[in-house]
Amino acid sequence: MLRLNKLVKTYKTGDQALKSIDLEVPKGQVLALIGPSGAGKSTLIRCINRLVEPTGGSILLDDVDLSKLGSGALRKARREMGMIFQEYALVERLTVMENVLSGRLGYVGFWRSFLRKYPQPDVDEAFRLLDRVGLLHMADKRADELSGGQRQRVGICRALIQNPKLLLVDEPTASLDPKTSRQIMRLITELCQERGLAAIINIHDVALAQMFVPRVVGLRFGEIVYDGLPTGLTSDKLTEIYGEEDWEATIAKVDEEDEIEAAE
Amino acid sequence: MPVLEDVNGVREWRRRTTGQSLIRWFGWLIGVAVFVVCWQRISDSTTWFFVWDAPRIAEDIWTRATPPRWEYITQLGRPIWDTFNIATLGTIIALFLAVPVAFLAARNTTPSALFVRPVALLIIVATRSINSLIWALLLIAIIGPGVFAGVVAIAIRSIGFCAKLLYEAIEEIDAAQVEAITATGASRWQVMAYGIVPQIMPAFAGIAVFRWDINIRESTVLGLVGAGGIGLQLSASLNVLAWPQVSLILIVILVAVVLGEWVSAKVRGAII
């Protein structure tokens, strides 16, 4: 469904953030993108919806090359891709409901959105989504009154109300505590399953990624160095992605669970 | 920060080396010398007779000015109302003009940093650098004396101030929120209405009230050059040496300014 061909991004400073990335994401697949800081994870995600302009290569979403679209067509294409951010990126001074409905901006004209006169089906869907993530009672609160986990749920609603085919998720748990992190990852993967959505999740918590996704892609210095099952991430592989370090503590859990299962 | 070692091998630390200390002492010496020379020159060109005379004259004016001519207040209602209107209308017009200028001047919203931004910055600098009294003098020559000239003078003078503070607020917004709205497929204007405007609203309200407060003070003197408001009465009274009227006008201005400041403090407190 999504295919990246030889995607290249070189920043003005000369830094090559992405060196010829080839990646294919089939419909409904959730994959985790791991790698050290500066490996190009954020750049990769932002090149797909062109918040960052790629330097070369093509991005095919259902056979439409996103890298060649003009601004009007790009806006239409962006509606198909929901994005979730690390620091939630909610508009702090707007209410939860306004934040969720802002996901419909691509479908609604300027004056309707300015006067907050959204079509009733959109409003119904917003309430349904808020109910699904357990925040219905917060609909009228201002976004900056919510806790981190609650904000991220609103962020998820904003992405889903776009009715996207693909979710681009940038470090969804980096600002959250371990328990909330798991809840958010579980929510994202569940919602993707319910709706048959594909997702690319940037994440630097390897153990968390292993827990929730069926496919992991490792990025290092703008190149894909690993693409496979989460269980295939051995010490050697992690060293290849991140560099020399003692990885036993990170992957021990998976191994232990396997061993226990084997013992039983 | 030099670390010196003396003959006994004890390491000594001082803030400055001897050379640095000497240079600083020399600098102070020159500063004091310049001050003394300047003092001398000013003193030479001062007619000291007038200065020694000052307390007596001040006392003389004080006795003439007190008590204020309270019954004159009946003629001041209209001018002080004009003054308030000049300040308020001028501020409103300035804000309307300042908003687009600010968006054109802010680095993150300007359509072209190379061509449009310098023009916007030039507008800001040009309107800000000329005092409203001088704008009023110019405008009276162009559109004739009266309240309207005062309103336009205040408006022009305020554009630069408001636009500068506003564009700094725009440059400081959280880019992630703008990015998030852009990523939904929103149009340029929708990004502005949803991603940028909510973030700058508190700054905007604060700037508006602050400038209104300043403008009340500025508009009280505009009448001195004939641009309407209470300054007209002040200038007329000064011309005929009607000191009791002057003192009453000064009291009225003081009350008006305090009132304006009180309102602006209340409003800003409510916003922030």
Estimate percent helicity of chain A.
Answer: 25-40%
Uncertain stretches of 5 or more adjacent residues of chain A: 254-264
Which CATH class of the largest domain in chain B applies here? Mainly Alpha
Number of strands of chain B: 2
Q: What does the main sheet of chain A amount to?
A: 6 strands, mixed
Question: How many helices of chain B in DSSP terms?
Answer: 10
- Main sheet overview of chain B: 2 strands, antiparallel
In percent, how much strand structure appears in the residues of chain B?
under 5%
Q: Summarize the amount of helix of chain B as a percent range.
A: over 70%
Detail the topology: elements first, then pairings:
The complex is a heterodimer of chains A (264) and B (272).
Chain A (H helix, E strand, L loop, with lengths): L1 E9 L5 E10 L4 E5 L6 H8 L7 E6 L2 E2 L5 H8 L2 E4 L11 H6 L8 H5 L5 H13 L15 H13 L5 E5 L7 H18 L2 E5 L3 H7 L2 E6 L2 E6 L6 H8 L5 H16 L1
Chain B lengths: L2 E3 L5 E3 L4 H27 L3 H18 L11 H29 L10 H14 L2 H12 L3 H25 L3 H9 L4 H35 L7 H10 L3 H29 L1
Antiparallel strand pairs in B: 1-2
Helix pairs in contact in B: 2-10, 3-4, 3-6, 3-8, 3-9, 4-6, 5-6, 6-8, 7-8, 8-9, 8-10, 9-10
Give a concise summary.
The complex is a heterodimer of chains A (264) and B (272). Chain A is α/β, with parallel strands linked by helices and 264 residues long.
Write up what this structure looks like.
The complex is a heterodimer of chains A (264) and B (272). Chain A is of the alpha/beta class and 264 residues long. Chain A is built from ten helices and ten strands. In chain A, strand 7 (166-170), helix 7 (178-195) and strand 8 form a beta-alpha-beta unit. Chain B is an all-alpha fold. Chain B folds into two domains: 3-44, no CATH class; 74-271, MetI-like (MetI-like fold, Orthogonal Bundle), CATH 1.10.3720.10. Chain B is 76% helix and 2% strand. Chain B has helices spanning 18-44, 48-65, 77-105, 116-129, 132-143, 147-171, 175-183, 188-222, 230-239, 243-271; strands spanning 3-5, 11-13. Chain B has a two-stranded antiparallel ribbon with strand order 1-2. In chain B, helix 3 (77-105) packs antiparallel against helix 8 and helix 3 (77-105) packs across helix 9. The longest helix of chain B is centred in the C-terminal third of the chain and has 35 residues, at 188-222. The mean pLDDT of chain B is 89. The interface between A and B is medium-sized, with 32 and 21 residues.
